[in-house]
């Protein structure tokens, strides 16, 4: 089969990528590459034949071409066509413990990607990869794995957009140091607080305020573990001006007061 297998223990090795635009009509080159190719079209159409199968990739669609198979163009690609291309190598299969490996098949083609998370990741990746940021270069293969994972599991039955309760979780986790406010949540999500509260409780088994408190406490735990800040300073950092109230809330979630928690972490480390 002409499928590309994605493995969690053997992430692909990045080679190169970029955004191309056809300044004049042309035919896709005839070659047998030793790397895999991902093509994502934003404008126009790309025509490629692989192993006697003809493909037409239109805006918002992608195609994977497998290494070791000949591909070429039978039809002319028009001027103005724009597409992202990614070249990547398969990682050698040297996993010592096969029980740890999980695999997924990359779809040969995929459509409906316009304005999707995949498209955003692809554009960011192509923009960043040749920057002078050493970290972005260092993580090139890991970021490519994230993009390919997005593709592999896109049609796994999960909706691309997160559920309302997950969006609320993300918001509360990112605003744990802000005072909890039903009015702010209504303005943020353009929904009634009563409706959001019912959906959240059904999905998460706790109230939104309980989740906010837990997020605040988990942030405090990180500070207690990794800094020398006093308990009152930690309380202020996570949005609790009253250190006594903070200690009570912390104990209700963790089962220990902040100072006892810090001591237990140090003794355990």
Report on the architecture of this protein.
The chain is of the alpha+beta class and 269 residues long. It folds into two domains: 4-152, Regulatory protein AraC (Jelly Rolls), CATH 2.60.120.280; 162-269, Orthogonal Bundle (Arc Repressor Mutant, subunit A), CATH 1.10.10. The protein is 41% helix and 20% strand. The strands form three sheets. The protein has a five-stranded antiparallel β-sheet, covered by helices on one side. It is elongated. The mean pLDDT is 89.
Write the layout of secondary structure elements.
Blueprint: E1 4-7, E2 13-21, E3 31-32, E4 36-43, E5 46-50, E6 53-57, E7 61-65, E8 70-72, E9 82-89, E10 103-106, E11 109-110, H1 117-128, H2 134-138, H3 140-152, H4 164-174, H5 182-189, H6 193-204, H7 208-226, H8 231-237, H9 243-254, H10 258-268
Antiparallel strand pairs: 1-10, 2-9, 3-8, 4-7, 4-9, 5-6, 5-8, 7-11
């Amino acid at each position: 089969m002409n499928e590309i297998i994605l493995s969690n223990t053997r992430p692909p090795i990045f080679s190169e990528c970029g955004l191309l635009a056809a300044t004049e009509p042309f035919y896709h080159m005839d070659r047998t590459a030793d790397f895999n190719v991902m093509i994502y079209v934003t404008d126009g159409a790309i025509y490629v034949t692989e192993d006697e199968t003809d493909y037409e990739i239109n805006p918002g669609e992608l195609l994977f071409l497998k290494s070791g198979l000949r591909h070429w163009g039978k039809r002319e690609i028009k001027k103005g066509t724009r597409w992202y291309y990614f070249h990547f190598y398969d990682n050698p299969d040297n996993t010592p413990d096969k029980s740890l490996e999980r695999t997924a098949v990359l779809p040969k083609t995929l459509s409906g990607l316009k304005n999707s998370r995949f498209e955003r990741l692809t554009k960011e990746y192509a923009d960043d990869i040749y920057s002078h940021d050493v970290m972005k270069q260092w993580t090139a293969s890991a970021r490519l794995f994230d993009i390919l994972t997005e593709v592999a599991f896109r049609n796994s039955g999960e909706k691309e957009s997160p559920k309302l309760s997950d969006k609320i979780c993300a918001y509360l986790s990112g605003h744990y140091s802000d005072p909890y406010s039903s009015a702010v949540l209504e303005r943020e999500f353009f929904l009634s607080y009563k409706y959001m509260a019912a959906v959240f409780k059904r999905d998460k088994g706790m109230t939104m305020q309980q989740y906010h408190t837990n997020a605040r406490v988990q942030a405090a735990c990180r500070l207690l573990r990794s800094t020398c800040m006093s308990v009152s300073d930690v309380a202020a950092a996570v949005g609790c001006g009253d250190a006594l109230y903070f200690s009570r809330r912390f104990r209700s979630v963790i089962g220990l007061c902040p100072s006892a928690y810090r001591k237990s972490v140090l003794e355990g480390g």
